[in-house]
Write a structure and sequence with these properties.
The complex is a heterodimer of chains A (107) and B (121).
Chain A (H helix, E strand, L loop, with lengths): L3 E4 L2 E4 L5 E7 L7 E6 L6 E5 L3 E2 L7 E6 L2 E6 L9 E6 L6 E2 L3 E5 L1
Parallel strand pairs in A: 2-11
Antiparallel strand pairs in A: 1-3, 3-8, 4-5, 4-9, 5-6, 7-8, 9-10, 9-11
Chain B lengths: L2 E5 L2 E3 L5 E8 L8 E6 L5 E7 L6 E3 L7 E6 L4 E6 L8 E8 L8 E4 L3 E5 L2
Parallel strand pairs in B: 2-11
Antiparallel strand pairs in B: 1-3, 3-8, 4-5, 4-9, 5-6, 7-8, 9-10, 9-11
Classes of the chains: A mainly beta (107), B mainly beta (121).
Chain lengths: 107, 121
């Protein structure tokens, strides 16, 4: 199976800051990568697919980039609603796999 | 509105069985692949199983292969996960998730609220 590794595991930041989360795949997955946001007690929400395509309704402050084995999720200016956990997921091949998650905390 | 709603979770003893259901509405259920994704308490997300819209193709994570069976009833717009030989490590919230695309796109645009499965004696 393809392993997905996110960094950092925890990120402390302030409202208005620009933050970046990195996701690395154990082998090339082309651009078959999605990003999700999850708040405590809630289901994940799709933010980005195909590495850089913004899901409908998701604010434009979220952006994704990368291909092959290295990917990033960037939030250009953090809003209070953005403090949550973020997961990357590869769908290049079955079994689909997720990164271990990044918890974005308020500084 | 596109929605999926899981049910069937609960407490079960190790070695026992449980069947989860996921009722879908607001979209053509038979057209979309569906997956089950689980999340152990305080842990990350783990994809468990997927099924094509027609039900003809199924896929499983190695951790559940041979123990879990995914199926769908297109007449009832309902997805199922039959879980046998349950282990403590199967304890998790189980989410039903709709594929974004009508083929196996592999990413999920609609998730249920989850149903908790606890395996314990």
């Amino acid at each position: 199976d393809i392993q997905m590794t996110q960094s950092p595991s925890t990120l402390s930041a302030s409202v208005g800051e620009r933050v970046t989360i990195t996701c690395r795949a154990s082998q090339s997955i082309s651009s078959w990568l999605a990003w999700y946001q999850q708040k405590p007690g809630k289901a994940p929400k799709l933010l980005i697919y195909k590495a850089s395509s913004l899901e409908s309704g998701v604010p434009s402050r979220f952006s994704g980039s990368g291909s092959g084995t290295e990917f990033t999720l960037t939030i250009s200016s953090l809003q209070p609603d953005d403090f949550a956990a973020y997961y990357c997921q590869q769908y290049n091949s079955f079994s689909y796999t997720f990164g271990q998650g990044t918890k974005l905390e308020i500084k | 509105e596109v929605q999926v709603l899981e049910s069937g979770g609960g407490l079960v003893q190790p070695g026992g069985s449980l069947r989860l259901s996921c009722a879908a509405s607001g979209f053509t259920f038979s057209s979309y692949p569906m997956s089950w994704v689980r999340q152990a308490p305080g842990k990350g997300l783990e994809w468990v199983s997927a099924i094509s819209g027609s039900g003809g193709r199924t896929y499983y994570a190695d951790s559940v292969k041979g123990r879990f069976t995914v199926s769908g009833d297109n007449s009832k717009n309902t997805l199922y996960l039959q879980m046998n030989s349950l282990r403590a490590e199967d304890t998790a919230v189980y989410y039903c998730a709709k594929d974004r695309l009508v083929r196996f796109g592999g990413f999920f645009d609609c998730w249920g609220q989850g149903t908790l499965v606890t395996v314990s004696s």
